[in-house]
């Protein structure tokens, strides 16, 4: 149901967001266009003055000294326009690249005598100004503006762009023929340049008429219909007839005046078109602002309405779902664990402890309310609880039966082996034949190992009381008893075992534990390598340590960490989860746990290869020595490095535990 509500809400909000984003984007476009039109008009003002300076400079270079005075005034206006354009970074870059030689060009044009001027100077100067004007027109932002929403604005921008190109062609023609008329004829490629400029003007005007409005086309026709424009046309026709380089009888000043009026008229049309475009951009910006505000208000109202509906729908679902969640939490955290614990701890049949279906009927399920689906979920939850309880009861019964079977089998084997050992002992006392006696000793050894296996089974079942011992035993006797319970006892080397007395109630468990460790070392070391057993007393900690050292295959760090975890775990879960080949580790862990607090078993690497196991017995398991004046001898070097390795391994384990790393 949450998906059914959420999907439409998300779709509505997405549609509203897209609409607001579209209006915001339209507002941004309108504001950008308005700013760019303003910059374009300032750029065209600079271009207009540069075009005038270009024409006057070209006439001056052609020999008309009367252009010097108007040229000086035009240069001042150019400088003023340049200073006004400095804050614009894009235009500033063009000014730096194309007008940095402006002072030098002006100085060259101001030479005193006309004899120092030639056609190449006039052509180069004309090219300099033309390149600067073309660069300014290219950086004009209107040339890059594109609108997606308003055709009228797009046509206005295109008309402004084409009119700028036409005006540049007229101004370039004015400057070019100004020099030609002052010189008296065409020279070099000047006539070809004249024809190219006229063709560019015609093409630009044709494109302007295609996108301009009727008033804009009328203003253009008025600009070309004045007397000055007709006079300029007559001069153009005269220039067309001098393609062969013949002399031209035309007054440069008259030509300049006529063309200047035409250029100024075209500039006026250009500003009029720019004003129209800017007004259109202002209107679009205003409309976009109003539209954005309307969409924001509508979106806010829609979000509020949708939020209210969602809250209403959510409350109709969350109340019964909350009650259902509380019931589920109570089942998972309280009722189910409590019932499972009661089943596992009770001596009765687990199935008899299960509540009846009527007793497990959850009253909350009838009070949840809400849709029928929620009631079905509540009923399913009750069924899950009942099924879980049945499974827990079955598992507890199976676990109990398995444990009892193991314990029963272990006790039977233990009794049989005890009787067998008694019989073998009587036969040993009666036998005089050395060979037969040796075989009886071997049979006695096998029976002793069988007794250890039976006791291990009882240890795993958790029902094996320790073997009674009347009095404390010496540490060496405990080691010898452990060696007697392993198969390859001849490979066991009992090294230095310092004197110690182990309390009677712990002797059997310590011997059993050492036997398991020695058996493991014998199994995983070469047949030719002995397994060493060391023992020493640590007065600093008041502990006694037994070390079982082998030089076999060893273990990886990961396997060693898992083995140490099993050695320190005495719970039933470890027995059920551990593979069968690691049951010996669990037996050692159970025995160490039964020895009480302070008893530890730890595995670490043997120097030179192999694995060492260390059993540490606390002082409470040690009986007072018979000779109190005797001082225990210091630990041998081999024992010292075992003790250091054990302490280092324990320190690493504690560090991992402090960091939250599971073994």
TrEMBL record:
Residues 509-617 form the Histidine kinase/HSP90-like ATPase domain. The keyword Transmembrane helix applies. The chain crosses the membrane at residues 292-313. Residues 45-277 form the Nitrate/nitrite sensing protein domain. Gene3D superfamilies: 6.10.340.10, Histidine kinase-like ATPase, C-terminal domain. Keywords: Kinase, Membrane, Phosphoprotein, Transferase, Transmembrane, Transmembrane helix. Pfam families: HATPase_c, NIT. The keyword Cytoplasm does not apply. This is histidine kinase. GO terms for molecular function: protein histidine kinase activity. It is an enzyme of class 2 (transferase). One of its GO terms (cellular component) is plasma membrane. InterPro entries: HATPase_C_sf, HATPase_dom, Nitrate/nitrite_sensing, TCS_sensor_his_kinase. It catalyses: ATP + protein L-histidine = ADP + protein N-phospho-L-histidine. Its EC number is 2.7.13.3. GO terms for biological process: phosphorelay signal transduction system. It comes from the Bacteria. PANTHER family: SENSOR HISTIDINE KINASE TRCS (PTHR45436:SF5), SENSOR HISTIDINE KINASE YKOH (PTHR45436).
